[in-house]
Write a structure and sequence with these properties.
The chain is α/β, with parallel strands linked by helices. The protein contains four helices and 14 strands. The radius of gyration is 18 Å and the shape is flat. Bound molecules: coenzyme A (COA).
């Protein structure tokens, strides 16, 4: 570790400690009590963590923040700055080990529609799980839509809009995203077990 990274690491460890305890408090607020007020409080805290997660200088801090928001995140995950993970339904997003999400990417898990569309019942879709499987890579500025599974080792190219599942070890690009290349699987299976 370089000397100039030491203060950042100290801040990170401090934040992690605080968040571990506050996250427990959030869970208690949203699950332990069934009152609407408590749930709102939990969501509000989640929104604050999300804003922090966009801007924190180290990706490890961003991962900690998004976990505190309720996103399920595995080990060795990279999350770039200004990544948006659905703040209304973070618990509908699961990110497996060694996934990378590049800066400015967006992962949404619901289509709420406008207040008018929701109120009149013209259009409203509830949350649908988004799953980024092990080793997947979402490029800069890409958008992953509700209900999508990005399979193991798949690549979502920069700026792609993904509305359908992405097969393993496949590159998809464009809007709507389409497969543009098939990758070879892992060269050394021992290194991915
Ligand atoms: C996908 C990517 C990795 C390129 O992979 P590659 O194996 O070199 O693929 P190629 O350049 O051979 O592209 C294959 C095809 O997809 C197209 N393509 C590649 N990236 C594309 C994109 N972002 N949008 C649209 N089309 C794209 C290429 O034009 C090519 O089309 P063609 O076969 O008609 O010529 C790269 O384009 C990309 O999007 N990188 C993301 C960068 C990033 O997010 N960096 C942040 C790091 S954290």
């Amino acid at each position: 570790m370089k000397c100039d990274e030491a203060p950042l690491l100290a801040i990170f460890l401090l934040l992690k400690g605080i968040l571990t305890s506050v996250r427990l408090q959030c869970n208690t607020l949203s699950l332990g009590s069934l009152s609407v007020g408590s749930k709102r409080m939990g969501k509000t805290l989640g929104r604050i963590w999300r804003v922090l997660a966009w801007h924190l200088p180290m990706y490890q801090m961003r991962v900690v923040m998004f976990r505190a928001c309720g996103v399920k995140i595995g080990k060795g995950v990279y999350i770039g700055n200004l990544v948006y993970l659905d703040s209304e339904y973070p618990e509908f997003i699961e990110i497996e080990d060694e996934v990378a999400i590049a800066p400015g990417a967006i992962v949404v898990a619901h289509s709420g529609g406008s207040p008018f569309l929701a109120r009149t019942g013209v259009f409203h879709e509830g949350p649908q799980k988004v799953l980024l499987k092990r080793g997947a890579w979402v490029g800069v500025g890409a958008i992953v839509l509700p209900g999508v599974t990005v399979e193991e080792g798949a690549i979502v190219a920069a700026g792609a809009v993904v509305s359908q599942n992405v097969p393993a070890f496949t590159i998809v690009a464009g809007n709507p995203a389409r497969a543009v290349k098939k990758l070879e699987g892992p060269q050394n299976p021992n290194r991915v077990s």
